[in-house]
Design goal:
Strand content of chain A: 25-35%
Oligomer: homodimer
CATH topology of chain A: Rossmann fold
Radius of gyration of chain A: 15 Å
Order of helices and strands of chain A: HEEHHEHEEEEHEHE
CATH class of chain A: Alpha Beta
Number of helices of chain A: 6
Structural class of chain A: alpha/beta
Number of strands of chain A: 9
Shape of chain A: globular
Chain lengths: ~180, ~180
């Protein structure tokens, strides 16, 4: 159940609110700032509702949000799906034993971590972040969850930067996005 | 409307789930890990519901969450209060013009930032974070919001470390906490 052919009015609304900042975090990168989307209650609410609709009929035990903007969209999604929330964090932020993985983005190498007891084998997890770009972060998050035996039943992003190939990199997982650039 | 004399069964539930890790992030500090609270849907839901109840009858335009765990508890609170959400972030994370302030915690100096257009003068804001310890971070967040002319109508924390004096430091603001150590 892709949202691809879905709600163009929500996509237009999102695009009317997102602010695009050139050369952040480095020259040549266009940063898509989602803070106006969450500052306006009705827009934030519509984004969460559309994210929830994508998982109607799907069993979801946990929503795993990627630090930090994935926490913002992931916690309301978890609560509306009657699911728990798992934070996937930057290195050194989680206080108990973790598994970790490093990956290369277009402009940096990053490490993310997951508590080893965050999920049990066979549990069904949705991964969420604000933006799907090259897919490196999401693929790393999925690899951590799968190392613990979880089944990743979907990946949700508010914004998809289609030219960066993230959807292809997440081939085999249902990918849901709300606004595409 | 303090929750002080409130829901001892929720306080007991929270304390039964929080994991206490000694010497994190530095020797001598007891770290209170809230990840089990959010991993269990029914516990997370009860925490959000209790946070919402504290603002019944209060006008709230925005909930401002302090990076990163304040995002986790703050976004569901904002949505349930029909309010927008404002992220207060570590230095260098927000892409547009900000105001910033630095403050000293027991073990480090930190800087937090707020987009200068995040709130308008006279708007009513609730500040939220996972833990109230010395109150330095929350006081810094409040000072940023007030510099922009906002009115801080309350500060919510899931956990209060009472021996560290945070509540006294936030004297004059309604402080709501759900579990006290």
């Amino acid at each position: 159940m892709e949202i691809e052919d879905g709600d163009t009015s929500l996509e237009d609304l999102i695009k009317s609110r997102v602010k695009t900042i050139p050369d952040v975090p480095i020259p040549g990168i266009l940063f898509r700032d989602i803070t106006p989307l969450i500052g306006e209650f009705s827009v934030f609410q519509q984004i969460v509702s559309a994210s929830v609709r994508a998982y109607r009929g799907t069993v979801v035990d946990y929503v795993a949000g990627i630090e930090a903007r994935g926490f913002i969209f992931g916690t309301p999604l978890a609560l509306q799906l009657n699911a728990g929330f798992i934070p996937i964090r930057r290195a050194g932020k989680l206080p108990r034993p973790t598994i970790a993985t490093s990956y290369t983005q277009s402009y940096a190498t990053s490490t993310i971590e997951l508590h080893i007891d965050a999920v049990q084998a066979g549990q069904k997890v949705v991964v969420i972040d604000d933006v799907l770009s090259s897919g490196g972060t999401a693929a790393a998050a999925i690899s951590l969850l799968e190392k613990l035996g979880a089944e990743v039943v979907g990946a949700t992003f508010v914004i998809e930067l289609t030219s960066l190939g993230g959807r292809a990199r997440l081939n085999g997982y249902p990918v849901h996005t709300l606004a595409r650039y």
